[in-house]
């Protein structure tokens, strides 16, 4: 039985202007939430503010903000200064690159965000202790680079009350395959992710959707396993037209 809603993820590096052009198509296509990665070259909150201004009901989420680079107090300040609609907002956070004190850093960030009135916080988590922290102290967890079977197992381990979302890199045209392969190789070479793939006994490519013909079956498997599936769009080039085409071809509501 289908469990999860379907959302879409874009890179923060696209910038607010491009996101504002894409967001109305995302809403019209029936996606539940627009997720934006926060990177050194892309401010997720600024991009979401642009999307908020051109949509009415679309949920908005960051996925994920590393709190060793962008502390929770800075996130709170940006949400307020940008006038983001908190009733539509999910703040995804992660520990970042610094290994020491990761659990304590995320625990403190959750408290700061909650104290500021941001009532929906998800924690990006690879390991079981971070997943448990997200389930117990925040509003749930965001998984990344996991196949459907592993997503189901991790969700089951957290219990039925835990909210679980999963990011899935997705390419639907042949011309985007090289970019997906490069993204996959980059993560597979990261020690943390390499160790995680080894623990799961899967190849990194097994956690991606590589063709439009795979989309239906993969979505069925993922939505049966978790509460929200985020299709992280991989397109041939970072143009508004390429992303809008992806949105139209993958959205729950045909355009």
Helix-strand layout with pairing:
Elements lengths: L4 E6 L5 H13 L4 E4 L7 H9 L6 E8 L5 H11 L6 E6 L7 H14 L5 E4 L3 H10 L3 E4 L3 H11 L5 E7 L6 H12 L2 H10 L11 H14 L2 E6 L6 H11 L5
Parallel strand pairs: 1-2, 1-8, 2-3, 3-4, 4-5, 5-6, 6-7, 7-8
Helix pairs in contact: 1-2, 1-10, 3-4, 4-5, 6-9
Overview of the molecule:
The protein has one domain: Alpha-Beta Barrel (TIM Barrel), CATH 3.20.20.30. Helices cover 45% and strands 18% of the residues. It contains 10 helices and 8 strands. The longest helix is centred in the middle third of the chain and has 14 residues. It is globular. The mean pLDDT is 96.
Concise account of the structure shown:
This protein is an alpha/beta fold. The protein has 10 helices and 8 strands.
Q: How confident overall, as mean pLDDT?
A: 96
Which radius of gyration do the C-alpha atoms yield?
Answer: 17 Å
E-strand count: 8
C-alpha termini separation: 25 Å
Could you state the order of secondary-structure elements as H and E? Answer: EHEHEHEHEHEHEHHHEH
In order across it, which strands form the biggest sheet? 1-2-3-4-5-6-7-8
Q: Given this structure, which CATH class is correct?
A: Alpha Beta
Helix % is 40-55%
Name a few traits of the molecule.
10 helices, eight-stranded parallel β-barrel, 255 residues, alpha/beta, 45% helix, TIM Barrel
